[in-house]
Amino acid sequence: MPSTALAGIRVLDLSRILAAPLATQMLADLGAEVIKIERPGSGDDSRTYGPPFAPGPEGDRTDTAAFYLSCNRNKRSVTVNHASTEGQELIRALAARSDVLVENFRTGTLAKYGLDHESLRALNPRLVYLSVTGFGQTGPYADRPGYDGIFQAMSGMMSVSGHPEEPMKVGVSMIDILTGLYASTAVLAALRHRDATGEGQFIDLSLLDCGLASLSHFAMNYLVSGEVPQRRGNGGYGGIPSQAFPCKDRPIFLVAGNDKQFAAFCAAADRTDLLQDERFATTSARIAHREEILPVLEAILRTRTRDEWLTVLDAHDVPAGPYNEMPEVFADPQIQHRGMLIEVEDPASGQLPMLANPIRFTATPVEGYAPAPALGEHTAEVLTSLAGVTQRQLAALRDRGVV
């Protein structure tokens, strides 16, 4: 079973693609009942975002993309056509019995169907209503569509990522992922407020806002100094060294974030003479003389293999790690010990590998996972139990394409 931390919380999930579905998956992992509303016949767009697609039990492939599986576990799928009058009534009936509603339609879309916050608040004043959009509910760009890469470019994330001569987006959909985390935190805070006051509220969350907020110390450095941050490739903005270095064979990432760690590195490298150089003796001095010290460190690191360096640096308590490709990540003994790779029984695929939730509770652990649901798998169960639909009515709704 998922964690019981949010047991008793019902989430009506009208979201698609990645950012908002990640938020509702987090809530589901933490024990909330999440009912995912999908379009009849096609469902969430991300079901088709393959290849790769989930494998079938006989080695063939299913029609469900791995992308969809990454952010929809522990949910129940209900198909409802929200553009139909009857479909809108069904969603309103479910919203009246839910604690949270999450949607990521373009600004103003759901108001056309009477499914906006103000309309549903009249039915359920305790409802926490989260809207995730590209640019937010207000402002000159509020009506624009957008995707992760656009927000990485506009928020400044690309301006600080990549090599000096070329800005580059982060490989994963980082702003979607960060927005999902902001969203789940916002919902939990709103639920706390609701439980204290009896009142729900509207949460306006913008991917562009979240992308900018995630720049953190990069943005703060600029605001304090007025200096535009420079792209440093695999180099960091903290202490020196804090970046990838080539070794005799393969690279490592090395961080000596304070003077004690730098002294330990110098001892490991048998170069304690560097500590006598006033340009390198302190963290601030090393940052100021970055261009002088980095070639020295690169020359030192090239003298041994990656594994030799990792062994000696570990012995001297210097933070360092290998550059891993995906097979090495999942073969890493620490990753295996932490149980980050799990398998779930999936009706369509058999044993399906999956990433575990990284949160470790003592009292309310996440102890099991349900696979992402098949399209409409729970339509009958949910609508008959929560929306008062009879089996005869359900059949008629199916005939009319409402569900």
Note down, in words, how this protein is organized.
The chain has 16 helices and 15 strands. The protein is α/β, with parallel strands linked by helices. The chain has two domains: 268 residues, 3-Layer(aba) Sandwich (Rossmann fold); 71 residues, formyl-coa transferase, domain 3 (2-Layer Sandwich), CATH 3.30.1540.10. The protein has a six-stranded parallel beta sheet, sandwiched between helices. The chain is elongated. The model has no long low-confidence stretch (mean pLDDT 96).
Layout of helices and strands:
Blueprint: E1 10-14, H1 19-29, E2 33-38, E3 53-55, E4 61-65, H2 66-69, E5 75-79, H3 85-96, E6 100-103, H4 117-123, E7 128-133, H5 148-155, E8 162-163, E9 166-167, H6 174-197, E10 202-206, H7 207-213, H8 216-225, E11 242-245, E12 252-255, H9 259-268, H10 283-288, H11 290-301, H12 306-315, E13 320-322, H13 326-331, H14 333-338, E14 341-346, E15 350-355, H15 379-386, H16 391-399
Parallel strand pairs: 1-2, 1-6, 2-5, 6-7, 7-10
Antiparallel strand pairs: 3-4, 8-9, 11-12, 12-13, 14-15
Helix pairs in contact: 1-6, 5-7, 6-7
Report a brief summary of the structure:
GO terms for molecular function: transferase activity. The chain has 403 residues and is α/β, with parallel strands linked by helices.
- Helical/strand content category: alpha/beta
CATH class placement of the largest domain: Alpha Beta
- How many DSSP-defined strands? 15
Number of domains: 2
Which percent bin holds the helix content? Answer: 25-40%
Give the name of the CATH superfamily of the largest domain: Crotonobetainyl-coa:carnitine coa-transferase, domain 1
Work out the helix count: 16
What are the segments in which pLDDT stays under 50 over at least 5 consecutive residues?
Answer: none
Task: Tell me the fraction of residues in β-strands, as a range.
Answer: 15-25%
Rough outline? elongated
N- to C-terminal separation? 28 Å
Radius of gyration: 25 Å
Give the name of the CATH architecture of the largest domain.
3-Layer(aba) Sandwich
- Strand order across the largest sheet: 5-2-1-6-7-10
For the report, how would you describe the main beta sheet?
A: 6 strands, parallel
CATH topology of the largest domain: Rossmann fold
